[in-house]
Amino acid sequence: MRTLLVNPPYPFSEIPILPMGLSYLAGVLEHSGHEVRVLDLLVSRYSKEKIKKKLEEYQPDIVGVTSVTLNYPIASDILKYTRSVDKDIITIIGGPHVTFAPVETLTEAPWIDIVVRGEGERTMLDIVSGKKLADIDGIAYRDKANGIKMTGERHLIENLDELPPPAKHLFPLSRYLALDVHASILTGRGCPFNCIFCVGSKMGGRRVRYRNPKLIIDEVEQAVSSGFREINFEDDHLTLNHQHLNALCDEIIARGLKFNWSAFSRVDTVNLEILSKMKQAGCAWLLYGVESGNQEILDTIKKKITLEKVRDAVKMAKEAGIGILASFIVGLPGETAETLKQTMQFAQGLGASYGFNVLSPFPGTEVREKAAEYGIEILTNDWTKYDCNRPLTRTKDAGPEEINAFLQQYFEALNKYLAQLEKESGASQGESAKEKRRSPLSIAILKGDVIENLATMKPEGNPVEALASKVAELVPYSHQQVKEDITKWVDKGLLKYTIKDGHLVWDWA
Ligand code: B12
Ligand code: SF4
Fold first, then answer.
1. What pLDDT sits at residue 2?
2. Would you place residue 426 in the very low, low, confident or very high pLDDT band (cuts 50, 70, 90)?
């Protein structure tokens, strides 16, 4: 069977990252000899005509789409449109949102045939092999005679090394490289904790399964040689098992690889020794999930860390020379105006970078399932708002008003600080601020399909100059800014032109 995997857009302006779930699925399908292609609508223009064109060209038997909660509506819409173009295509959806709302999904979206729950590689192979749906574990599907059916639990893949590497080559890599985003690599799956706002351990299991460090670093080498300058190890938290982490660092050091990397971590799983080793192997940044500056809240959300540990872990990382981003969530159970103040003071006193998310009570999380018990009122089920950036809940003492005031105060201080930094900055900070300002330009060019929709040009004068002039007419940025980005892309071989019928045609490599 021929499968088309679709990466839907995010309805917000985050930096797009190549999705690991879909690339693993594409990898197993390709490796097992099944035909598979990817339609990536995250780094290109999202339009129904484009989906239709792809369906007509490729004629897939199956269309599968991934989603988290916030892009579930658009993912569902893509399948609805697919069904309207060709009623015989089997439509499938997977990812953490539908995993915990399978029956609701099939009930509200009659155009979806199958929901894949949890890890999808083996389940997808069963589906493309034409196995009877009733015999495939880990799905919910529509049975014509008996309505919506759920099959048994799918066992997690015991040995992750049996999986072929994620098929990143099926994605439009030059577009991701143009955005200069990091490459994502998983060293293991699973998390032994059960924080009430997260479904990490429900997706990957409570027992962490690790990959062979040699295979992981082979994948790193492959990503670096394709042009990625940074790697993020996307494990729920990388620092849990020091034996595994040491082996990983040893492999990087032994191969003499020089690249910057970052990872997610917990403050109770680091010490100076491991942090120093990580630094030696190229670790530049760690994100610590701190969540709150109030100990009672930390205990309620089952984070199982203390404020003392947070301070120690930040100090140790500084000593080792690793940058820290402390990540907080506001609006957690027990939040009040006072605890918000404590959290702000705690964050400011850490001596590290920090950022705030707002609680989004995702399906499958304990905070959603036991909202009343935790004193949380859920204010909306409009999934497009589940972006962790705005208040969707209220505690007895803190609701949208308090949280918005808190966020406003934070962003005002942040903008003042950034403006000051730019004013005082030397060349390096000025350059990095310029880079950051420019990434919306790259996104505008990519998400608008600006280059591929240009009319052909006469091959006269400097082709880069001619391209920059045309593009600058279409995006709200200066000719100089556009030219700088385009020159960079051309130099890296990401953008290329060919001569067709005496005309220049530019396209992504
Ligand atoms: C790494 C990670 C990220 C990385 C993604 C890196 C990448 N290259 O993919 C970054 C930092 C970019 C990120 C961003 C965000 N993340 Co995140 N992230 C994770 C994390 C820790 C691991 C995800 C992962 O890669 N797992 C490994 C891969 C192999 O598994 P997978 O993606 O789940 O895919 C498998 C199955 O879901 C299934 N599947 C998935 N899609 C499909 C499609 C089909 C057709 C089929 C058959 C099967 C299938 O099969 C796949 C292979 O086994 C999870 C926690 C967790 N453990 O799940 C949170 C998690 C997914 N993130 C979450 C959130 C909220 C976000 C953000 C919205 C945060 C924000 N405000 O920016 C954004 C959303 C971006 C987006 N659209 O995905 C939530 C999602 C909850 C929800 N219901 O929405 C999670 C679950 C954490 C939590 N709070 O519980 N995230
Ligand atoms: S927040 Fe981190 S530690 Fe807590 S359950 Fe999620 S992945 Fe595990």
1. 98
2. low
> Which residue CA neighbors atom 3 of ligand 2 most closely?
193
Dihedral of alpha carbons 133, 137, 142, 148, sign:
positive
- The finding on whether 6 has its CB within 6 A of some atom of ligand 1 is no
CA-wise closest residue to 214 among 255, 164, 260 = 255
| Straight-line distance from the first to the last Cα atom of the chain, in angstroms, rounded to the nearest whole number | 28
Statement: residue 313 has pLDDT above 70: yes
Q: Say yes or no: CB of residue 236 within 6 Å of ligand 1.
A: yes
**Neighbouring C-alpha atoms within 13 Å toward the C-beta of 349:** 12
Quick one: 195 and 326 in the same domain? Answer: yes
198 CB within 6 A, ligand 2: yes
Pick from 375, 396, 427: which residue ends a domain? Answer: 427
Pocket test for ligand 2, best of 195, 206, 310 (most atoms within 8 A of CB): 195
Over residues 6-40, the pLDDT tens digits come to: 999 987 667 899 999 999 999 999 999 999 999 99
- Ligand 1 center to residue 491 CA distance, Å? 33
Rounded to an integer, the average pLDDT of 236-255 is 98
297 lines ligand 2 (CB under 6 A): no
Per-residue pLDDT at 434 exceeds 90: no
Q: What's the domain range around 464?
A: 438-508
pLDDT tens digits, 150-189: 999 999 999 999 999 999 999 999 999 999 999 999 999 9
Say whether both 108 and 199 belong to one domain: no
Kindly identify the ligand whose nearest atom is closest to the C-alpha of 288. 2
Concatenated DSSP letters of 151-220 = -PPPPPPS-GGGSPPP-GGGS-HHHHHHTTPPEEE-SEE--S---TT--HHHHH-SS-EEPPHHHHHHHH
Report the distance separating Cα 248 and Cα 55, nearest Å: 42
pLDDT confidence of residue 12: 66
Do 248 and 198 belong to one domain? yes
Alpha-carbon gap, residue 124 to 90, rounded angstroms: 12
Q: How far apart are CA 376 and CA 334, in angstroms?
A: 9
Percent of the chain beyond pLDDT 90? 88
Both 421 and 454 in one domain: the answer is: no
